[in-house]
């Protein structure tokens, strides 16, 4: 039972560390810890927001793991294992619920434009007397040059200069 308790305490320490780092905004965007969805990984701001929102439930999950570890140490084998198992399942559901809420918060954030607010990103009125296709092409080329890139396909623009559908 000591091994079960130690495993639960180590998990609680890891989950609690991620919770605290997320709450205070010190959890860097990564592929291993925190809320990791395509929406949260698209920018530092969305990752930070998602993990700040999920932080309290992650801390609660760490607390549940500690309770399971204490139960494993202090109770009979059958009762201690039962409570430890319930604590692990409850911690998974708690962390998952917080992660889902954090992911929704990140998804609600506006998508970064790719070239910032320094250029028109394809929204310019310089090609007034042209067809819509020619306007879009001229606009995209102008926006790309304003952003310091050679074309709309540049990685920093991420398709921002393409005409809206």
The fraction of residues in strands falls at under 5%
Could you list the spans in which at least 5 consecutive residues all have pLDDT below 50? 116-129
For the record, the count of structural domains works out to 2
Secondary structure: number of strands? 0
First-to-last CA distance = 61 Å
Largest sheet: none
The structural class is: mainly alpha
Oligomeric state as shown: single chain
Mean pLDDT: 80
How many separate helices? 4
* Helix proportion: 55-70%
SSE order: HHHH
What integer value in Å does the Rg equal?
A: 24 Å
Principal-axes shape call: elongated
Describe the protein's architecture and organization.
There is one protein chain. The chain has 165 residues and is mostly helical. It folds into two domains: 2-108, no CATH class; 113-165. It is 61% helix and 0% strand. The protein is built from four helices and no strands. The protein has helices spanning 2-23, 44-74, 77-108, 132-146. Helix 1 (2-23) packs antiparallel against helix 2 (44-74) and helix 2 (44-74) packs antiparallel against helix 3. The longest helix has 32 residues, at 77-108. Residues 116-129 have low confidence and may be disordered.
Give a nutshell description of this structure.
The protein has 165 residues and is mainly α. It contains four helices and no strands. The chain folds into two domains: 2-108, no CATH class; 113-165.
